[in-house]
Each structure stands twice: as C-alpha cells, then as structure tokens.
# Entry
Amino acid sequence: MLLKRVVPHAVLLAYVAAVLFPFVFVLFSSLKGSNVEIAADPFGIPKTWHPENYLEAWVKAKIGVYFFNSVYLSFTSALTAALLSAATAFAIIRMRYPRIGRWIYQTVLIGMFIPGNVLFIAQYLLVMNLGVLNTHWALFLPYTAGALPLGVLLLAAFMKSLPGELEEAAIMDGLSSAGLFAKIVLPLTLPALVTVFIVNFLGAWNEYLLANFFISKDALRTLPTGMVGFRDAFRTNYALICTGIVYSVAPVLLLYAFLQKQIIEGMTVGSVKG
Amino acid sequence: MRKRLGIAVLILLVALSAALAACGSGNKETANAVTGDAGGASPSASASSGTGSEAGGTDETKAEPFTVSLRHIQIGEAQKFRKAILDDVVRKTEEEIPGLKFELDGVEDQVNRFTKLPAEMAAGNPPKIFDLFGGAGDALKYAKAGRLLDVTPIIEELGIADKFLNLSQFTLDGRVYGLPIGGSTEGFFYNIPMFEKYGIKVPTTLEELEAAAETLKQNGITPFAMGSKGAWVPLMMVNTLIGRYAGPEAIDGFPAGTHAWNSPEVTAAFAKYEEWVKKGYFTKGELGLEYADMLNQFVTGKAGMMFDGSWRASVFKDPSQAGELTGQVGFFPMPPVPGGKGDQTFVNGNYSNGYGFSADLNERELTAVKAFIKNMYNEEMQLRGLLEDGVLPSMKLSGDALGKVEDPLVKQIMETMRQAGGAFSHFDSTVHSEVYKESEAQIQKLIAGRATAAEVTEALQKIQETANANP
Amino acid sequence: MKHPMRNPWIYTLFTVPTLLLYGMFFLWPMLSSAYYAFTDWNGLENYRYVGWSNFAAAFGDPDFRRAIVNNLIFIGFSIFVQIPLIVLFALLIASVRRLRGFYKTTVFVPSIVSTSVIGILWGFIYEPEVGPLNRLLALFGAGPVYWLAEPKWALPAVLIANAWQWMGFYIVLVLAAILAIPRELHEAAVVDGANGWQRALNITVPLIMPLISVVVMLSIAGGMRVVDIVLVMTKGGPVGATEVMASYMVNEAMGINPNYGFGTAIALIIFAFALLLTSLYQLTFGRRTEGGYF
# Structure
C-alpha cells in the first residue's frame, strides 16, 4: 500500500533530479577554482569558494553589455508586438468591418504554419537590403513581426469573450473607438496582454539564430550570441564558462519564479492554438 | 497583485541592467570582443578607446569628429601582444588625425574570414579597415568584385612599395589590394624537456619523426596534438605534406591545372596523414576539439609535438598561457620525405594575413587609412611584432633589427626560414573557395575514417576541375 | 454620425502597422525565397537563373541526404521515445496529490532557457575529460567517451540534450489535459473495480488523444526546426553526424562560400518537408483522433 504511494514519487523525483542536476552542477562548477577541481569532484560542493569568477566573467565576457542589449531588445519588441497585436485584434474582432477582419485574420494565421528557420535567409537578405544589418533594428523588426501572428490569435480569442455591453455603454458615453480601446478594452485584456508580452519577451531573449548572424558588432550583441562567443574564447576555462551560463539563466529563472503561471499558460496555450 | 509584482520585477530588471551596463561600460567604447584588456595592453587600450580621451585631440582642434570602423581578429589571450601593437598604432593614428576615432570590432579569426566578412562584402558594407587574408578565395575575390581599396598609390607614396617580402597574395593585375602584416611558417613545435626525457633528438628525416612519434606513443603520450573540429587545423600539416610529396609547385599548380589532387604524389601525402591517424598519433577525440584545445593538449604535456603556425610562438614565452612549458618549446620544420618531389628543404611560408581597406571611403576616411598604413607598416612596428609577438616580418628588416631578436624559439624559426631553399604557400590562398571548402569537409571525413586518401583526392580533383572551368 | 466602431481611420491605424510588419517579414521573405531558390546568387556577382539545379544539387549531396535522415531521426525520437515517456510522467504527476505543483514547475524549467545556452551547458556535460558524465562513467570503470567527437555518439548526445530541454514543456501540456478530465469518469471506473493502470489506459489516454495528436504535430514541427542546439554543440559535425537540414542551410548560406540561392532552396525544401509530414500525419492518424479538443 505504501509502496504504491511511494513509487510515483520516487520515479518523479528521479526525473526531477535528472532535470535539475545540470543546473546544480553548473552552479557548483562556476564557484570552483580550476578545471582540476571540477573534474575531481563534479557533483561536490566547492572546497573553496571563488566568487571572483563572477567578476572576472562579467568583465571578460562584457556581460553587462550583452545583458543590456538583450533586455532592451526583448522588452521593446515584446511590448510593441503586444500593443500592435492588441490593436489589430481589437480592430478585427470588435470593429465593424467583418469581412476585412476575417481576411486579415486568415492572412495572419498563415504565419503560424511557417517553421522558424525557413525565413532566415530571406530575412537576412531583406535586412541587408534595408540597410539595417548590424543595428538593433535588424533584430527588433523580425522579432516583433514574428510575435504578431500568435499575439493576434491569442488576443482575438480573448477579446471575443468580452461582453459587448461594455462597449455599448462606452459608446453611449461618447467615447471614440480609440478611446474605447485605450480606456476600456486594453485594461480588460491585461491578463492576456501580459501573457503575450512574456512569451515574446522570452522568445526574443532566448533567440540565437538571427541574433548571431544579423549582428556582428560586439557592442550590440545579445546574451545568447555573447555567451557562445565567450564559450569559444575561453574554451578551456570551464569555471568561467559555467559562470557565463549562470548569468544567462538566472534572469530567466527569476522571471519564471514570479511569473510562472503566466509563462506556462502562455507557452502552452499558444502552441496548442497554433 | 501578482501581476503588478511581475511587472515591477520587469521594470526593476531593466533598470538594474541599465545601471550595471553603465558601470561595466567603461570598456564599452573599445567595443572589443571577449578578451579583457589583459596585462600590458590595458593602458594603450583604454587610451585608444576614445572615451573622450585626450588622445583624440578633439579639444585642440575644431575638427568634426568622425569614426572609422576597424575589424580585427586579435581577441583572446593568445593574441594579446598583437592587440597591444594594434592599439598603439590606433592611438598614434588618432593623435595625428584631428577628430579621428577608430571603432574597433574584434571578431574571432575564422568567423571573420568565413562568415562575417564574406557576408559584408556581399552586402557591400564591410568595415573601413579589416583583417584580410590574401589569395584567390579571399582578397583577390573581393578585389575582383571591386570591394577593396587599391593601395598601390598609397604604398608608393609612402615609399614602402618595395619593402614587402611577398605581396603576391594581395596583388591582382599588378595592383595591390591589401598588405600582409607578418609572415608565418608552419612546422612542428616540440616539448624540449619531454624530448630529453625520452631521449628523442630533433628529427631530421621522416623516419626519425615517426620513430619519435612511436616512442612518445609507447610512453602514453600523444605524439601530435590535434583539434580538428575546425578543419583548417589539420589542413596545415596536410598542406606541408603536399609540399613534400608533390613538390612546392603543386600548391600553385592546382588552380593552374598543372597539378592534380588525385595524382599519386598528392594522394601519397594524404595517405601518410591517414596512416598517422590510423596509428593513433593524433589526440583522441580530436574531432570535438577546437584550435585552443590543441594548444592546451600541448601545453599540459598530454602531447609532445604540435604542428602549428609560427604565430603561436608568442604564447610560449608567456607563463600565463604556457605554464610550465614557458621557454621550453622548440621548433623544427617537416623533415624531407623519402621519394618526395621537388626541393625538400622548402618550408611553408605564408604572407597572407594582413589588412584590407574598403573601396568605399570618403576623403577623411582615406586620410585615416593612409595614416594607419604609415603607422602600421614600418620597421618599428614590424620589429615590435617580431620581438614582442614572435611574428615574422612581412617587410624587409635591416640586419641590425633582425639581430635584436633574443627569444630562442623565434630565432629557431627564423633560422629555419633562412636555411630553407624557398617557401611554398598554403593552398587555402591559392585555390578557389569551393575547393578549399571541400578540403575542409574531406579532411574531417579522412580523420573519421569515412574516406580513404584516394577518395579524398578524387573528390577534391573533381571540384578543382569545375572551379578551373569557371574562373 | 458614423458609428465609432466604423471609423476607417482608427481601423487603418490599428491594422496597417501590423500588416506592414507581417507582410515585410513573413510574406515577402516567403516570396523572395521562392524566387532566389531558382538562382545561384552568392551576393557578389550578378546571378543567373538556374532552374531546379539548386534542388537537384541538394538532393544529390549525400551530406544533405544525411541531414534529412537526421531530421527524421529527431522527429522519430520525439514521437516514439519522448511521447511515451511524456505521457507516463504526466500520468504520474496527475496521480499524486502532493508536490504536484513542485513537479510541474521544475520539469518545465529547461524549456524556458535559451537553446544556445543549453547547447553550451550540455557541451560541458559531455566534455571528455572534465565533464560530469565521463566522471560518472569513470566511477564504474568505463573509459572516457568522446561524446561529441565521435560520429556514433554525437547524434544521440544531441538528441538527449534536446529531449532534456523540451520534455518538461510537453509534460505540462499533457498534464493540463489529463487534469481536465472530469472526475466522475474516474470515480465511476473505481466503483467498477478498475485499478490505476486500467483507468489510465482505458479512460485517460483515449480521452487525451486529441492533445497527443497536437503534441505529435508540434514534435514534427519542432524536429524540422532544430538548429540552435546543433550549431552550438557540434556545428553539424563530426563529419555531418549531427547535421540537420537547417544547420546545413545555415552552413551553406553563411559559411565559406555563401550561396544564397542554394540556401533559400534548402529553406523551401525544409518548408515542404514540414508541410508534407504534417499533412501525412493528419491524413493517416490525425483523423482518428479528431475530437475537437481545441
């Protein structure tokens, strides 16, 4: 009887351990003094603590720069995508142009079917021709554009469920459609907006392919590319590499700790609807 | 409530990172890649970073500030001496030209050569000054497409046109499109104490080399350090073997059509490499190791020899990089091979890495470029490169200057070059990009045991013939 | 007076920016890909129309064929190895009462981290001399395995790293579906004498089949999309053992000899494959599990 209760937990705990051990391992390794120590005792707590590794990595890997670029790019593209999607969803669903609305919806829906990297080269050429290669626009524009189909989809679904009486009331009070959007609808869709924002923020934060090839100037690099470059330059200093990994992962984990519900919801619902 | 907390966290993160970035951005202006400005390089680095520095000369004159983008490959510990020299040239040039500020962009060598620069050339927006490799696949290709500045008038004006040892890699139709910064030769570095320990003397014949390898192997030491994830690394030895088995003319002969990859001699070169792979003379797991890992193998004593370019010499006088092996490294060229064609005393000699300049320059940028060339390509800097960095000069130096070299390793290298009958280049600067690309794929197949030497050379010849048919 | 909801200016303002961005970065690239794929443009010289030769060259290249096989292996692994495990773990989590939130939260974590960082992390784990995996093996006396350097180990190694990243995501997804099954069904079964396993197999699994179907489709899409982890861990090596179609495309288009024409042809092939596999699935198994979950 007890066994039946224990077995699922045992299995699950083993799985959770397998999931978490790399993180723990990296954390410990980042505080160790040398490769020899890491090799000798991979799972052990560091004998001597070397927090200066973190300072060294910060300076050598210029993490401050990459971090700032990632935050700024992810934030702006996610915010813009959220607002644009909201506006478009509002226009399609609630404004009275049903046929155009449906057409726009279908067009945007197509975007959901295109796998991520198919457009990579063509987008590269486009960005090149626009002359914004190697600037932050080169990433901001594709990231924002890429976030639109899912954003419109999710927000349209959400807005559809909003009661119509609010609008009627607002219109009778003399609000224009823009006012209605800003003052009534937007606040009401906040939960969905936050979800869309977070999903896109994470997507942009973690994006590697475009970030690697569209930006070569070091001062503009984002964290994923910077970390890979750091790994390549310091291949043989594993403690330092682990420190870099911790820097990249910690902010995401922090975000996750506070917003896990929205993150999980956003990512799962988003992909299923797609 | 939770939502607001979440949003607050986000805003906090943005603010925090902005603050941190501002603190850490003291180095930001230099826009160097991953290395810290290590050791002696820091004073000049921060001066040249133009953080509103006095060196910019912007307070004296009313000249409008302008920036010139400078792409270099001097990132990482091993390149710090070169970086110091570059920084000094940058600083000096900025002092001379009012308003000038260089914007340095450090990129890893292979990434710059094979990813960034080709893409930028295609887009038509390369940096103004950039690290450039000579030869058909690089400089000459871009020169043909009109992307490179013709520096012939500049070097004639500066009077250095005939001071270069070898400009052939950068010359197209008699015009020069880039300037090599140094020369290099590829040969064997060896662990002096280890050789003594096992009673190995410096090999002068192929048999002796193989015997040395065997001795090391018997004692549990990898004979040749190798990291072949980057396929260019094993190709260094392959190139020199081709020079031995098929003769120095073969290297230029491939694109000219006078020599074939699938000739018995060239195939013999690949076969010898294959033999050594099969005998286990190279580092195990080499296909997963990068160039830096190969150095690590050698420096930590896991391998006794390392075939590499002379540019690595400066690493071995730096204790922070060479550890116990500091000053304990020697150099010898690939010994003659039995039955080899051509002069077996020839060594590999490359003058193919240097700087190129965008053809798209305005007047002020052109002045900056001229000053840069003047400050970079002169006896003083060449000598510094030799003394501080162990890089062989690409320009003629006076006997006095050459005599100043003290580092025994560099002296050995220079002696090797002096005793050689002549030099042959690396085929990566003579053949078409497609052929080179194929050679990278093929050597890895050979190492993995997926292809034999004969198959490799057949494949290469096929591509070479196609390339020769459509120049 | 026109109804405020029929305001053309606002409508335009609200839709045009989105459509513009979307058109520029989705529709236009699709069209231009379709165009460039039939040329041999390499960025430097004028290009020529070359018809289908890019496609012929791609399928004629054994390295590309290998890449196709690798993509299929990724997909196969996801479907036949990962999905059963995913369902198992989801069932296990659903069956316990305590710590459910803990399990759900922790297994999900790897899927929110950047794939490139995961590549660095696992590259380190697989390190032949310093990495923990080989140290663990050493405890059992097994020699160092050159995980990412040997063609026969490299692909499994990448597959495992990839699975580690994404399984949690799917587990949470399936878990949500399992938990949505009305309790009365289970209670009725218990009354009829069914034990846990019987209930799982006969009630839960059939009811979540529509979601599993979605998971399969997502796995197919994901398998076609793999690229970051390969580029960061092995760059497609050793000797193409881990090359996937997308990494092949990136190496061709952005490598030593950039060939954008060829690269876009590959991109189209990837797209076609994704469509083909998804449709194939829909036509064969998808129909059976139509149950209108979403």
Summary: Chain C is about 70% helix and 0% strand. Confidence is low (pLDDT under 50) at residues 290-294 of chain C. The domain at 62-286 of chain C is CATH 1.10.3720.10 (MetI-like fold).
